[in-house]
Specification:
The structure is a homohexamer of 209-residue chains. By secondary structure, chain A is mostly helical. Helices cover 57% and strands 0% of the residues of chain A. Chain A is globular, with a radius of gyration of 20 Å.
Chain lengths: 209, 209, 209, 209, 209, 209
């Protein structure tokens, strides 16, 4: 250790304002330089613009290859939007709790906004991202998230007893499938986002606060 | 598994609105019933009201015993507010990154608000709570947080090489002490908050968004 | 502890032969009772039968819902079979190394067979399932698997330095995307298989030995 | 990241066949150059050749020192072959489940073959190496492996309640000793094999498939 | 690996006696060069000398800044010496069990001595430092340490069920606060000690043996 | 939480002195009731008495079966006492550092005493049991213990680079074997001791203080 340091604290030099922690998030969407294909999915992007006001960066990140983009969109839409015994809010809660386990910046931001919006309870979004165990939840919600997070943390030890806990909380076989499929999907997406340094649209940060 | 479930998803019964995930946070501050002492620190609480508009729940939680409350306040104020080679924002960034490692609801909410307020960059608060590695930080900030989080995760393996990495980033001995002391303090507070189910004032949630 | 036990070992009663460890794998494919939909994908299943001699159980498991089945098949085929800078064998090696990290019975059996078949080196399949670090691999293969397994184990800590290690091993941006996407996909599939107790077709066990 | 990579996947150059993942396993048995002693144990090696058709590489690895070789062989033979309340198959199942926890290439290959041979159920060998929790086992087998794997993963937390679970599954004190001793032995062997990069005889790979 | 090594063990050169493993512990108290302030707390140090025969190194380490030293001393004295439903020995047992989890050299030495002294049972001090689960403890002591160590290891998962286990062992709300506060305090101190390479007074090593 | 607790701390009832934390260690050596065999090894036990003044409890624990006892003694004596490039003290240091990783009460007590005795530096024994990283060690000692503890913690990731670090610290192939074999042996013994609740002779506690 340096022998010159002492109790007197270093005089702080007037510093220039720090750059934003999210600088470039809307322009340099991933660590990669992968030019988009002429968009067969242009119509889909346009629909996003109309419906959401923007195209989610994950879609732009996939736009270098239409086959990959369509497969992702088809799976995402089925899982998160199609009829299910789980409400859309419940599916988004799983998305955020799993993404919190994996500490995924992109998904926490994008799906945290979704939980805030669907629940009308902004603090619920925060709690899913921080520690779902601290939230005031129904027994059904708690059982669902316990399963999803255990499945994320140690999939090798998920067994019949874990499925039975979901049954006792009122979930049927199809519901358990859906919990597993949503938790599985975000274990995939979290990793693709981390591997590519995918950045969320900055608009998400202030949605539904 | 139930043999009656099938593909047809359960019909969703119109459900009553879910309770807030933070219900009771401003009234039932911990899991305990510890009545406050006649307040020698009343003046301090009054100052809080005047300065912040409210008394942070952690202080109310400690109010059952003046000796404990004063000791906590003295240490907190010295660490977070007294002169230091670390800016107040840097100290709050450590607070949140450590609390994220420990997934502490109280401290993430209260100190996340402080990071947002001090930096004027709301997303910086989010990033400290989600995964500090994903934030666009200066090398100095990154080195500081790497040390603080390693110290939280595996204190037994922090050694000279870790201190040297801080030196290379421009920190002196006294600065390293302060990084360690702030990181240590939140490793304490996080655990007291989790052990007692301490709830943050709900006003924090929307500060400096 | 029982006071009656002693050094004399318990006399072994002539036992009936133990049941197979894989009993029912070809008939009770998951823990769930989810009847298949009238198959729009019947043609696809028929093609499987013709090409592989059987329908992989994962497809039967998904057959309760055509939308889910098609989305899964579209994503799987693109990732594992479409043109890529990664050979099909490399993609299967990632599949097995990730599934080994997650200790997923279904995927280790099904994709272990694929590694054996594509490589003509049965022991390579074993090594991917046991510990890829013990295999004699090219530097390219090793870098690829190190990235995929780190991404599985601690996605929050994958950063630019990890991508640079892949660059140094000769991978381009699109290749890195593909490594991440395959690793991500099996982090999803492993969890769906574990959550549902999905059982592999027993035919895989002896393929390409 | 390289700016030159794009969607077009790299053209695959016709590659020379990859080397075997197990190249040299039968000739360079460890990472070390330790010449064998004039063999007092020659007779034992000869017996191996006659009985098994080959000398297990672990014995060759120990042959640089007769005292070490004899001590290892004496302990191994007592544990795995002497009379016990545990069948030989049960002892081999413990060997493989422990070696799977420790991801030991040598022991997984050699003792995986033993499980296949003794059980006549090749898939049982695979399942012990992949995830014993996914195998269809008797309650006795499951209790035995749960104890052995917990003892491998976190020996500091094995206590009376764990021994009682074995009692309830029908094991006596001497049986529990034997489970612990076999699990302990492979926690030793796994580490010696990993530390020395010990390679299994390639003949094991196809035994009893 | 070197090709020259062989079975013949390296001849041991007569070696000079090894230096003490604790060399400098009484003179170079931390890794830092932080000169003490003219001591307002001189009286306190003098009292230490009179009462203990020495000044604990942790106090000397803090002496570069009186505000920090007083805050530390005030909190320490309240927690460890003030009236509480926990005996002083119980508080020291928590200190050592937590410090064992965090493998903190300073605190294990200093507080191990305290456990030996207060209990008159030197082996109790050893057991707290090695593995509290192996000690013969009362159910009350065991419950207290289980809570303190879980709170150290995974604070995010401490919940109502953990508090209820303490209630069942006879602890009231104020007692649980004190367990949490002592456990929390040593999670702070352990980290400050590790971060600064703080060395315990060598006199502790032989106290109360 | 109980509503009756408050700030006033529970009045401490005059308590009877607590039982020793090591009660029964010299009489109930394990959790098991396994009567000793008529001792072929009586001579060996007698030699222990003469040389050490007592028979180590681990030998009494094994005395229910002479084959197991002899195999254990043969391996132990070869590893810890036979000629080696490692000094006896170095081998005992490995024993304690590994046993600290595994938090094994029996081995920490028995081999901690050996480190104290062989080194004449009682604090060295403590440091090996607490955190070897905090001890003032030679580079050779540090490299040796880093290897042994990594091999204990994550044997699957020990590779050529780890062996090379030992080479650079001056160890030859045979020395590395011995480090691995001693570390492996205590990974076995630690687990047998934990599985059986083996208790060390109380005489060890005060040896060589």
């Amino acid at each position: 250790m340096s022998k010159t340091s002492n109790k007197t604290v270093t005089k702080k030099i007037a510093t220039k304002p720090r750059a934003s922690a999210t600088e470039g998030d809307d322009t340099a969407i991933t660590a990669f330089a992968l030019p988009p294909e002429p968009l067969e999915m242009a119509a889909y992007f346009k629909k996003c613009e109309e419906k959401l006001g923007f195209v989610p960066n994950v879609l732009k990140a996939y736009a270098f290859d239409n086959a990959k983009l369509s497969a992702f969109v088809a799976m995402y839409n089925d899982l998160m939007l199609a009829p299910s015994g789980l409400s859309k809010l419940e599916r988004e809660m799983i998305a955020v709790a799993v993404s919190s386990h994996n500490r995924c910046y992109y998904c926490l931001v994008a799906h945290g906004a979704a939980v805030r919006g669907l629940s009308g309870d902004p603090a619920l979004g925060e709690l899913m991202a921080m520690n779902y165990r601290a939230a005031r939840l129904s027994p059904r919600e708690r059982a669902m998230l316990d399963f999803a997070v255990k499945l994320s943390a140690e999939p090798w030890s998920v067994e019949e007893a874990d499925r039975e806990a979901l049954c006792r909380a009122g979930f049927g076989d199809r519901d358990i499938w859906d919990i597993a499929a949503v938790a599985g999907f975000f274990n995939m997406s979290n990793r693709i986002a981390s591997a590519t340094d995918m950045r969320p649209n900055s608009v998400y940060h202030c949605q539904a606060r």
